[in-house]
Amino acid sequence: MSAPEPFSYPTRALSRQQPQNLLQRALGHRSFVLGAVLTILLIATALLSFVWTPGSAYEMDMDAALQPASSQHWLGTDAYGRDVVSLILIGARASIAVGLIAVGIGLCLGVALGLIAAARRGWVEEIIMRLADFTFAFPALLSAIMLTAVFGPGMVNAIIAIGIFNIPTFARITRASANAIWARDYVMAARACGQSHTTITLHHVLPNIASVLVVQATIQFALAILAEAALSYLGLGTQPPQPSWGRMLSEAQTLMFQAPLLAVWPGVAIALSVLGLNLLGDGLRDLLDPRLSRER
Questions:
Q1: Cα 254 to chain center, whole Å?
Q2: 183: Cβ–Cβ under 8 A, 6 or more apart, which residues?
Q3: For the domain that residue 104 is a member of, what is the CATH number?
Q4: CA angle 250-256-257, nearest 5°?
Q5: Where are the extended beta strands (E) located within 110-217?
Q6: pLDDT band at residue 290, thresholds of 50, 70 and 90?
Q7: Cα–Cα distance, 92 to 149 (Å, whole number)
Q8: Domain count of the chain?
Q9: 31: in domain
């Protein structure tokens, strides 16, 4: 009997589509376009703060405290005389930094554990999944409170807490998606050809679940921004003098009757950022899996 021909696994519909066709579908998808615009605006805001701000976000000027919007201070000043626009611009840095690192931690460790669980099965899968269940018992806020009690408040501890919470999320999604791929005929053919678990995982499984992971990473990014704002609001996240949207909300709550807009602007920034990333994730899900867009 002659040796079997090398097997090439089928790729997802995305790789078979022409780039022009994908671009046309992307531009015609309202959720994707709106989400992409809001996400680009968030990134541009953070990048702009490195080269320009209309005022100082660190120096206090009590003589200029609680000033209304003017040509000098476009959105007014806070209780310490700091320019609100500058605080929002620089506060975007903390949100993006926490989101990127925390999601990166969850993505790297969670995907690795999920792939191992799907490839090995048996007691290895059982241990990994039970550890994931145990980690789910400690939400990001609770984990941050625990870390703060031991190491003190700060952005690093907030990142670690959110990142740890992301690990079981990615592990579960990766394991479920990978199990579906392991049951496919082309993977069984690859195993029959003598390919190792590692080779099958890297060459067959991971490329076919990449789109699912990208969409989930976008959604977790939005949740990480929301979690960072909540931790900063509680005083457990970004610490002074570094601006943070969550701490801006915390400082504005005592001035709701004197300057209610101080709570509006950071709230709008958080809402638009989370909305944009969620819409972007929803759009990517439809674009990377055309079956969903056909069902709608």
A1: 30
A2: none
A3: 1.10.3720.10
A4: 160
A5: none
A6: low
A7: 27
A8: 1
A9: no
Residues 190 and 192: their CA atoms lie apart, in Å, by 5
Q: Phi and psi of 83, rounded to 5°?
A: -70, 125
Query: Domain span at residue 204?
Result: 97-263
Q: Give me the amino acid identity at 1.
A: M
Query: For the purposes of burial, counting CB atoms within 10 Å of the CB of 109, is it exposed (0-12), middle (13-18) or buried (19 or more)?
Result: middle
Question: CA–CA separation, 151 vs 154, rounded Å?
Answer: 9
pLDDT score of 182 = 93
Q: Which residue has the tokens 């920034």?
A: 269
CA-nearest of 227, 225, 230, 234 to 272 is 225
When comparing pLDDT for 172 and 11, which is higher? 172
Rg from Cα positions in the chain: 23
Residue indicated by tokens 């969409």? 215
